[in-house]
Every structure is written in C-alpha cells, then in structure tokens.
Records
---
Amino acid sequence: MGTLTVTEFVTLDGVAQAPGGSDEDRAGGFAHGGWQMPLLDEETVAAIFARASEMDALLLGRRTYEIFAGYWPDAPDDIPFKHLLNRVPKHVASRTLAEPLSWQGARLLVGDLPDAVADLKARHDAIHVIGSLDLVQSLLRHRLVDHLRLWLHPLVLGAGKPVFGRGTVPTQLRLVASRTYGNGVVELAYALAGAPAHGGPDDVPRPAGAGGGA
C-alpha cells in the first residue's frame, strides 16, 4: 500500500497561496504572488527537488492543475522539475474538468475521493500532493494523508489562503524530520497521528526532583 504526502510552501503566518509566479493566482485579490522566489537558493531548490523526486504519482486539485499545466509542459529544459512533473502520472480531483486533459499523463480521479485515493495507493508507492489547498482539506477530512511536509519561510503576508483554514479537522502530528537551511527556510516533515489527545494541568510532566511543600 502506497502513501500520500502533502507538500506545502508556507509563510510563518500559514499562507500557502501562489508561491510560484506573481500573476498565477489573483483569487480574492491576492497581491503577493511570487513571494517564495526571492527566498530560494541552490541549497533549498536541490532539497525540494530531491524530496519531489521520491514521488511516483502526483495528485492535484483543479486550480493547481491548471497552473501547472499552463507552465510545466513548455518550461525551460534546464529546470529539472520540468522533466519530473511531465514524466510522472498526474491525477486531478475536479468536478468541472472533463477528459481528455491537456497535460500529457494527466487523468481525472473517478468516484468518491476516499475510494479513488485508495485505488491510487494500491497502484503507486509514493503519491505527492503539491499546493491544492481545497483538495488538501478534503484529504485531511477523510484522514487520507499519511505525511505532511511544510517548507516554512521567514516571511509573513497577512493575507492569502492558509494551509489550515476554517473547517480543518483536528489532527495530531508527529515530527519525523526537520532541517534548517542557510536562507532561513525550515523543512518540517510530519506523520499524521490521528485525533488529538486532551488533558489538563495534572497531566503536565514534573521535572525530576521537583517537589512541593516548604
């Protein structure tokens, strides 16, 4: 059974909207497209590409698919992501698009999301989701996400679509890896660990040797 990993490029205030190009996403009057580009360097680009190269299938929401399909097929040949994204099978969750899709190797998901993702996991070892914020909420709601990778950037925008917005299902995460890069970007890899636990003051661990009384 394969795994599903969600990758998001996010600001310190949780915005993940339109890190690619300045004009690729103006939804809701968003005016900060391209915010990620000045923060990239060779080290982080190499790391991002290495993580992306682990996938053998890509799952996208409609909006992110349209952005990707409008750029990557004809992107410059010296960008390694072009060859990776054009090569892997691409699956698109959409109720409005119709076959055939314009991007070679792209197909629409068929059926309900839980069943469709289960079918993908049966056929692929490592499915990645990039961006696709509306789809991510649905995947989290159905507890279909196995891993979450956040590339946290030293920037606040104060506006834009958050990774975790209203309606996000409460979920406990377990940090499995982290790395800080020289440009201030922090890579955080989590495994999803089910519903969060709850407690109170009596559940707080006491330091060894700490005691009460006079």
Note: Strands lie at 3-11, 57-61, 90-93, 106-108, 126-130, 147-153, 173-180, 186-192.
---
Amino acid sequence: MIHIYGIRNCDTVKKTLAWFSARDIIVDFIDYKKTPPDEPLLRRWLTRLDWEQLVNKRGTTWRKLPDVQRDGLTEAGAIALMIANPSLIKRPVVDSEGTLSVGFDELYFATLR
C-alpha cells in the first residue's frame, strides 16, 4: 500500500493525488491536519531521511517560528517542532513498502504499484 501524508489543500499534495488517481493507483491519504504525525512515525521516517529533508524551511510556519527555535536545531528539536506544527513537514511524504520520498517526484512515483 502506498501511503501519502500531507495537507489536503496543498497544491503539491493535490497534484500528487491526481497523478496516482489518473493511473488508477489506490493510495492511503493521511491528512496532517486530521491525523498529525507522532514521534514513532517521524523517527521511522528519519531512519530513511535526514530531518532537514523533512522540515519545510521555505514555508510560512517556519518563518513565523522564533529565532530561538530555528537556530541550532537538532533532530530531537525538529521532531518536537514537527509534532507541534505538522505544517512544517514538507509535502507530500510518500511511503511505500520501505521507500520514502518527499515532494512531487514523478520518476519515483512511476516505480510504485
């Protein structure tokens, strides 16, 4: 099963869901707003990706954080911030049987079934 994590109104998530739908590939969509990621899930992702690949430093949520929270951020701090502010996580996160990608990656998606 392909699991797609994100926020439903995010344009990149919409594009990703449309890509899979157009190819009749069934996915399990998990909306961060309704089901925020917990620490075990984030730690599982971080076995495959670096925390800096997951944190969206271009978004409004990141820019609104106080400097004290952004400066010198560690993996543990990033996990705490992502739990408290799921909008900090880049979107979408696509998880399929042990492989993980972040963002719209058509070449990666084409390898999934």
Note: Helices lie at 11-22, 39-45, 51-54, 60-64, 67-70, 75-84, 106-109.
---
Amino acid sequence: MADLAIDPRMELNPPLVQGGMTYSDVTDKISSIVEGKAPKRWYIGMAVAVPLALLLFACLGYLVATGIGVWGNNSPVGWGWDITNFVWWIGIGHAGTLISAILFLFRQKWRTSINRAAEAMTLFAVACAAIYPLFHTGRPWRAAYWLFPLPNEYLHMWQNFRSPLMWDVFAVSTYGTVSALFWFVGLIPDLATLRDRATTPLRKKIYGLLSLGWRGSATQWRHYELAYLLLAGLSTPLVLSVHSIVSFDFATSLLPGWHTTIFPPYFVAGAVFSGFAMVVTLMTLARWIYGLENLITMKHLENMCKVMLATGMIVGFAYGTEFFIAWYSANQYERFIFLNRAFGPYWWAYWSMIACNVVAPQFFWFQRFRTSIPAMFILSIFINIGMWFERFVIIATSLHRDFLPSSWGYFRPTWVDIGTYVGTIGLFLTLFLLFLRFLPAIAISEVKGVLHQQVSAGQAAPVHGGSH
C-alpha cells in the first residue's frame, strides 16, 4: 500500500507482528480461521449467544403483541432502559470507526490487527441500537414510516425536522452506511485471497462475487487506496458528529440535568471510552479462541488500554465539571438534580458509575495491568458496565423527580426490559462470532504491510513465501 514508504526507524518497538512470521504465515494463519474447522471454544460461545439472541426475538414479539406498556416506563420516567440501551450501543460502535479511520489518517500502524474486527463490531452495535427506537414506536410497521423524510400524501404532513430524535435517524443511518462501506472496501483484497485459496466451487463463487473481480493489479491498488482514504476522511467527522447528535436528545431540552452544553464532547469521549473497552473485551476473547498471540500482540492491547486511560480521565473530568456548573449556576433545580444523583434513591447507580468509569481505569497507569490479559479483560468489562450506568443515571435521575414533588416516581425495569437488553447482547455476540468464522477477522494485506516495515527495520525474521 502507499503508506509503506514510512521510514522504518519510525516503527514501534516491540514489533507488531511477532514469532518470526513470514508473508505466507500471516496469510495461512488468518485464512485458516475461515477455511478450517471451528474450535470447541467457538461452539461454546455460540451455545451461549444464540439462546440469548432468541430471547431478544421472543421479547420483541411479546412487546409487539402486547404494547410498550410491558416496559417499565412510567410517569414521570417516560424514557427508561430503551433509550439507555440505545445510547449505550451507539457508544460501543464508536471505537471501530475511530480505530479504522482516524488512526489510519494518522498512520498509526498498531491499528492493523484490530481494525477489521472493530469495524465489524461497529456494524453489529449499530444494528442492536436501531432496535430500540424502532420498537419504541409501538407499531413499527406503521410508525417507522415517520422516521424517513417522505411526505404524507394523505395528511400533507412532513416529519418534525426540528426534533433531535429526527436528527438521530439521519446521524445513525449515515454512520452505519459509511461504516459498512468502509468495512467492506477494506475486506476486498482479503476476500480475493480467500477466493484464490478456495477448494470448493461454492466457496470460490461466493468469495469471487464478494471480491468484485479483484486481481491485485497496480491500478486496482491505486483505486483501492484512494477509495479507502476518502471513506476514512468521510468517517472521521462522523465519529465526532453522531454521538454529539445523540446527546442533543437531552441537551436541547429544558430539563435540569440535561440542558447543558457539555454533553456533545462528554458523550463523544464516553463513546470512545466504552467502544475501546468493548474492543479489548472482544479481542482478548478472539485471541484466546483462535490463538492469535502473534498477530494481536500485547502492544496492540496495551495501546488500547492507554486510550481507555486517556478517555476515562476526560469522562471523570466531565463528571466533576457537571457538579461545578450545577453549583456555579446558582440554579436550585440544577443543584438538586446533581445532589439527588449522588445521594438520592439512585445513589447506588451513580457510585457504581464512578467506581467503574473513574476508579477502574486508573489501574492502567501501571504497566503491570496494561500487559495482563486477565486484568485488562476484567477492567474492560467494568468500564462497559460503568458506561451503561452513566447513561442510566443521566436518564433516570433527571426524570424520576420532577419540579412537583407530587409527580415524583421511581423506575424499575420489567422482565421484558431485562430480556430485551440481554437479548441484544446475545445478538451482538452471535453476529461477531459468525463474522470471526466466515470472514477474515484480521486485515491480511495491512498486517503484511507492517511486517514488510519490520523486516526492513530488522525487527522480524526474513520473509519467505508468496503473498498467498
């Protein structure tokens, strides 16, 4: 690729490809995941994920048949787990585009072994997130029409484009579309490799169709690099805009606890924070299931831990800023909301959020934790739990105590709330495991580019074998 001309002296140390791997070793190792039999650990993961995904469909079927009253939403908490989980899943999907697009533009070579899986994670997270606003309409087969900018010929009505909920539709759909294109374009050279290695006519036809006639000529590589660069440029502002627009659901209201200008950067930092935590969780599992220690190295995981530490500090600073502004504003309602968050009925959720999002990342200051697989796996799960609590705290504590004490209430999730959320996790894991099984989870061509630089810099064994 074009960026292989970087000075080898600028390479990261230690090398990003280990074990003295050659070009052929890289191709064989990554392709063998798709071509060989799935390990027992993969079947164990599917045995856990598929029943949870079926639970999702059962809960959604019950919801459609009965109505959204089966959720725990009430007055005054009109938004509950549905919007909490929507924002949480959108945040999870942020790291994929950031790793792929922004780090690609900055020529960060440590992205190469993790970007493909992170991009796939983005698509699956957006798919899970889209379930909530769709079914929140109650009758999606009728109400979903209003999510699209189409005029109603009978009522002469258009959508309310002044509503931030309408902005969500455009932001999330654009983000999902561009992320899917970016992911697929990056797959094309590797799909051609699987096509050339295919041993059955069916596999050859499927991968041949998906690879779009790729032959690896200089002209095709030039067009590929240009398309990849353009899509990276388009994706980069989306990383910043999509979660900013999601935050407008709250920030453009007049409700104390929501009506604040800090939400856009605060939500973006939190999204990157939770997204990287999910990438660490999934990459450590993929590394363990398929034995990818030489490709997903400790350097990749350690760099992601550093990003989590940085974004975790930003999120912690945002928490403190919110309390300071609530005090400095001298607004009694704003002050009450934040004191109620910390010491009211939902104190347990607030302090769980602080423990997971502020305290837990501090362990990453120490290299011992940044280079320990069990430690980073456990901490990444804690961070994702904490980020879920953050979204729940923002929604529930701002709604459950209204301006009138006579209107105060308390939100409790129902079994349908819990089942739907657990089911989306099952759907996400099912899609991710299927991706690992049938598509190259690591970018073969990009890893070879890094290996080429390491050989030039004398950091890896001499290269033998062809590209396939």
Note: The mean pLDDT is 86.
